[in-house]
Amino acid sequence: MSDVSIAVRCYEENQFTLNTLESIKKNASTNYELIYSPAKLSCAANANRLINMCTTKRIILVDDDIEFTQKNWDDRLMTSLHLDAGIGLVATRLVTKYNTFFNMQTRVPLGKLVTGVKIAGCVLAFKDVGIRFDEGFVRSQYDDTDFAYQYMQKEYLVCVDGSVTAKHMREATCDSGDFVRKNADYFHKKWSVDDRRWGQYRIVYDWGNQLPQTVGFTTSDRGGYSIHKCVNILKYIHSYFINNKVK
Fold first, then answer.
1. Which candidate in 43, 51, 84, 110 could, as Cys together with 140 as Cys, close a disulfide (CB 3.0–4.6 Å)?
2. Cβ atoms of 31 and 3 closer than 8 Å
3. What values do phi and psi take at 105, rounded to 5?
């Protein structure tokens, strides 16, 4: 039995895709199942198709132009996702292949788990609570932000984890065109909000440099997380907050 499902969203396989798969294989650490099945569908439809193929309720959705260079990046995301029952979705920091600014997720401080940042997807870790991508969005753009809004609507906390940084390897080319405008109009009509107006982010937890690369989610637990392991993780988290006076 796998601990987590890592689903790679792909329209058509290419060299970016192969590099993404290789970086996952090289740097992921949990007992994961890989869900990979290219399909010429919209980003939303592709995501739903993959989610429905997953056999776990802990899912990491990865776009096919992402690379990970950080060991145990998946453990870090799962740790943040399960810090509190109220956390529903966690995204990573994002940078370009040159380690430069990509979007607002780039500005999340290293080592800090924050909320109040617009989620643009690319790498999303979430608890499967029945929420699905809205296939009213065509091609790409705004579907990930809408997915995050659905979690917030159900009063889940949506966060960006500054302890995990992913590289977006393909140049951003989907910021113009009629389909982007249509998706933007569809999003704003649906939510009656201006998604460009985000306030100051709030720090939920501050890992600093003290969080180990793994806190126990290993491949040795074929049956999932044992009670003993979960207790040890909770003890570690509790002692961390007490010792560092995290509010």
1. 43
2. yes
3. -65, -20
CA atoms within 13 A on the CB side of 77: 34
User: What residues contact residue 211 under an 8 Å CB cut-off, 6+ apart?
Assistant: 76, 79, 111, 163, 240
Give me the amino acid identity at 100. T
Domains of the chain: 4-244 (3.90.550.10)
For the chain, what percentages of helix, strand and coil (3-state, to nearest 5) are there? 30, 25, 45
pLDDT tens track for 159-204: 999 999 999 988 755 555 788 889 989 998 999 876 555 556 788 8
Place of tokens 């074929």: 222
- Which token pair is 240? 């961390």
Specify the pTM. Answer: 0.81
- Closest-CA residue to 44 (of 155, 190, 170): 190
**Alpha helix locations (H) across the chain?**
15-27, 43-53, 73-81, 143-153, 178-191, 227-244
- Longest CA–CA separation in the chain, Å: 54
d(CA 187, CA 143): 8
> What 3-state DSSP class applies to 133?
coil
Closest-CA residue to 2 (of 218, 232, 230): 218
